[in-house]
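User: Design a sequence. Structure:
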C-alpha cells in the first residue's frame, strides 16, 4: 500500500485525501470529490477504501489520481501514511472515525473534515466507555452533519466545530437520476425483452429474508408485473439460498442475467441480476421498487429508488436510516412486515391515485434536501488548502 501510495502521488502537487469505507460511502462522497476537482484543479486527489466492495469497483475512478486501500488504523501506519501522502486536507464520509489517523493528521496540522455524519445517543462516542472515541471526534477540524438531532447531540458533548449541511447522497442520486448510466447493450437487450412493456418492480439489494415476505405476492402477480431482483450478494451459494427462499412455482420462472438471453428472459417472471454496479441503471426502468435489508441485515439505500418518484416499499427495521424514516412518516414509503402487506402494497402501487401521491411526496422531500455539497464547499474557505 505504501509503495503504491508513493508511486501514485506527485510530490510536487498538493494532495486532497478522501476516505470512504466501501462503495456506498464512495457514492456518498462523489459530489464532494467532483466539487473538489472543480474548485482545486491543480491539486491531486487521493482516494482510499477499507472494503474490497469499494476498491475493486472504483480503483480506477476518474475522480481520483491515486486509489489505495487504507492501512489498518495503527499509530505507526497512520503516521507513515500521512507523512507519505502529505495531504493538505483530509475528508471522511459519514461514520469514518479513525483515531490514529485523526491523531496523525492533528499532529501534522492537516485539516480533517467529516461530512454527511449522523449521530445517535446509542453510539460508542456517547457511552461511559467511549471517551477515547469521543476524543477522536474532537480532533476533526469540522464535522458536517445530516440532521438537527446530530448537531444538538454533539453540541451537548461540547463539540463545537459542527454545521448542519444535510446528506450529500441526495445530491448524488439526483445527479444520477438526471443522467443515468446506460446499460451495456447485451444486458439492455435482455432486460428489455424480459420486461416486454409490462409494469416492472425492481428489488434492490434483496436478501432471502425479503423474499420470504415478498414471494407469495410475486407469485400472485406474475401475469401483470415483471420482477427484477438485484441481490446484495451474488456468489453462487447466496444465489442458491435466494432461489430457495422463493415459492417453488416461481423458481422455474426465474432466470439469472449472466446465464440467460433475450429469448429465454422474455418468457420469465423474475430476472436475477448477478452483477454489481447496475442498480442505478436499472431503477429508471421501474414503476415500483423494493429496497432490501429491512428485516435483518440493515436497510440499503432507499434514495436510489425514491429519486425516481415511484411506489416504494421496505422492511420494518428502518429507524436508524433518517431518509427512510422521514419518507415513511410522510407516506412516501410503505413498510412490509408480513406477506399480506406485500400483496396490499402491489395492489396499491398499481393505482394511479397512489402513484401520484407518492410521486409528489418523494419529489418534494428530495428537492428540499439538495445542496449539501455546496454548503460544505462554502466552508472550505475557512481552511488554507
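Assistant: Done.
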Amino acid at each position: 500500500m505504501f509503495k503504491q501510495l508513493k508511486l501514485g502521488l506527485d510530490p510536487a502537487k498538493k494532495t486532497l485525501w478522501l476516505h470512504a469505507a466501501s462503495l456506498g460511502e464512495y457514492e456518498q462522497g462523489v459530489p464532494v470529490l467532483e466539487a473538489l476537482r472543480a474548485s482545486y484543479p491543480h491539486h491531486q486527489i487521493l482516494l482510499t477504501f477499507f472494503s474490497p466492495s469499494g476498491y475493486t469497483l472504483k480503483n480506477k475512478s476518474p475522480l481520483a489520481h491515486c486509489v489505495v486501500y487504507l492501512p489498518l488504523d495503527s499509530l505507526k501506519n497512520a503516521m507513515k501514511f500521512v507523512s507519505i501522502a502529505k495531504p493538505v486536507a483530509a475528508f471522511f464520509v459519514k461514520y469514518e472515525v479513525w483515531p490514529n489517523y485523526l491523531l496523525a493528521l492533528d499532529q501534522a496540522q492537516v485539516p480533517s473534515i467529516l461530512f454527511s455524519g449522523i449521530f445517535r445517543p446509542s453510539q460508542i462516542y456517547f457511552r461511559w466507555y467511549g471517551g477515547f472515541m469521543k476524543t477522536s471526534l474532537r480532533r476533526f477540524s469540522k464535522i458536517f452533519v445530516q440532521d438537527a438531532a446530530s448537531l444538538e447531540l454533539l453540541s451537548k458533548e461540547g463539540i463545537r466545530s459542527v454545521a448542519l449541511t444535510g446528506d450529500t447522497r441526495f445530491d448524488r442520486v439526483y445527479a444520477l437520476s438526471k443522467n443515468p448510466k446506460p446499460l451495456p447493450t447485451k444486458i439492455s437487450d435482455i432486460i428489455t425483452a424480459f420486461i416486454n412493456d409490462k409494469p416492472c418492480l425492481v428489488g434492490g439489494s434483496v436478501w432471502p429474508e425479503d423474499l420470504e415476505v415478498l414471494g407469495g405476492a410475486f407469485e400472485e402477480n406474475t401475469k401483470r408485473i415483471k420482477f427484477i431482483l438485484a441481490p446484495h450478494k451474488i456468489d453462487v451459494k447466496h444465489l442458491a439460498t435466494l432461489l430457495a427462499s422463493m415459492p417453488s412455482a416461481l423458481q422455474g420462472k426465474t432466470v439469472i442475467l449472466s446465464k440467460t438471453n433475450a429469448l429465454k428472459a422474455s418468457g420469465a417472471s423474475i430476472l436475477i441480476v448477478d452483477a454489481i454496479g447496475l442498480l442505478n441503471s436499472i431503477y429508471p426502468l421501474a414503476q415500483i421498487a423494493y429496497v432490501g435489508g429491512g428485516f435483518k441485515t440493515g436497510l440499503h439505500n432507499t434514495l436510489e429508488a425514491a429519486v425516481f418518484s415511484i411506489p416504494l416499499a421496505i422492511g420494518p427495521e428502518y429507524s436508524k436510516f433518517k431518509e427512510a424514516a422521514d419518507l415513511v412518516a410522510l407516506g412516501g414509503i410503505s413498510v412490509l412486515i408480513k406477506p399480506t402487506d406485500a400483496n396490499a402494497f402491489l395492489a396499491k402501487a398499481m393505482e394511479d391515485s397512489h402513484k401520484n401521491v407518492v410521486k409528489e411526496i418523494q419529489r418534494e422531500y428530495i428537492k428540499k434536501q439538495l445542496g449539501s455539497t455546496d454548503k460544505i464547499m462554502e466552508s472550505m474557505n475557512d481552511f488554507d488548502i
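The chain has two domains: 2-166, 180-369. The first strand starts at residue 15 and ends at 20.
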